[in-house]
Amino acid sequence: AAGARTRTSFAYSVQGVRICRTVFCSVYGVGRTRLKRLQKMVESGVCVPAPHGNVGKAPWNKYSVETRGRVIEFIKNYASVHGLPMPAAPRGRAQTAPTYLPSSCTHQSVWAQYSNASQQGEEVVGCKSFQRLWKKQLANIQIMSPRIDVCAKCETLRNVMKNADSEDFKIQSASDLKSHVELAQSEREFYRSCIEMAKTNPDTSTHITFDFAENFAIPYHARQPGPVYFKVLHRVNNFGIVNEAGAGQVHHLYHEGQTIGADNGKAHGPNCVVSILHRYLEKTPHAKSLHAHCDNCCGQNKNKTVLAYLCWRVLAGLEDEIMLSFMIVGHTRCSVDGGFGVVKKKFRASDTDSAAQLVDLIDGSGHRNKAALFDWHWRCWDDFFQAHFKKVQGITSYQHFRFSKDIPGKVEMKKTHSSEDIVTLQLMKDPNKVFSASD
After folding, report:
1. Which pLDDT band holds residue 91 (cuts at 50, 70, 90)?
2. Which of 69, 124, 192, 249 could tie 242 with a disulfide, CB 3.0–4.6 Å?
3. pLDDT tens by residue, 283-324
């Protein structure tokens, strides 16, 4: 009938053998879309090759050598004014030290300034070509990603370099930054070597790392109802201790009603740190030689109470040797933070209404994570130690402390792990005082 719709059918064959469409596409390596396009060509009676995707587009290297040279020179000058040059390239990456532009910059904003700065009559490169030239020719000039919890000293030195009035001042600031970064890298290598030693000789040496994590606020739901946002949630503190030799990480949990002070008061003080550390060392088998790493917070770890506690443990015969090392301020990321990150990722994707559910969540977050609900006693360690131990003067300038049964009642202090300048200090007010584990 006139106007009736017609449908064309196709038969597929290879070397005279009739086959299905799927096998035909597989034999000739074509997809369904390309096959349909070829069928339309056959129906129309016009079979011509499909145009290339770049037809009608100008190549990226269409610009002259002089034009590309002006682009590269502009980016270099822009980086010298606004960039923060690094003292050395990151380990395992390119050999050229990177220069970081402020995180507020974008490739498009830099291109806009380049376009406005171009003189009349000069050929101006487009934004896409500008980015391609930048990434290909100046890969070491990068835009800094926004971050939190960065090293204050690094940021200060970088800002000094950025705002330096003279080249000499900028060179001096770069030298100071390089020395600081190299010191942090050296302490990081020492931290890794301590872990490897504990893994190699677990019977003679134990290495632990401890720190506080961000508080949990419960109840928490992955799909949080709007009104819950305005509620005051229940805070649960988390103090983590990890044994890198294979025992895993223990998350010590206690809520705001179980702290030493009222309403979550004194939740992170030295008495809190020593009480939990004492509970962990009592319940966890470890070697007589103990090495601990932690961050540089004076209110929690780096204080007279913690040092006196470690000295007391050696005097009481609980360990033969204890070393306490602190990471460089601002460069304190360590293995215990990895356990915190795994738990935090699991927590954000789960519904948690109680402390019991939080324990199950931590236990199920990874085979190395274990939770311990509040089952210890808070003790006033600082009052006990104040009567028997002296205060260490200038404690913040030292990073490594050693207590040994060979030097009872004394502490050896060093500013860096490789320093040969060792300061020995008598901590006990009465060197003849005898302690026992029951004191």
Report:
1. low
2. 249
3. 999 999 999 999 888 777 778 899 999 999 999 999 999 999
- Which of 159-168, 390-399, 408-417 comes out lowest in average pLDDT? 159-168
Range with the poorest average pLDDT among 5-14, 349-358, 395-404 = 5-14
pLDDT tens digits for 223-241? 877 777 677 788 999 999 9
What is the model's pTM? 0.71
Give dist(CA 388, CA 380) in Å, integer.
Answer: 14
Sheet holding 99-101, edge to edge: 84-85, 99-101, 141-143
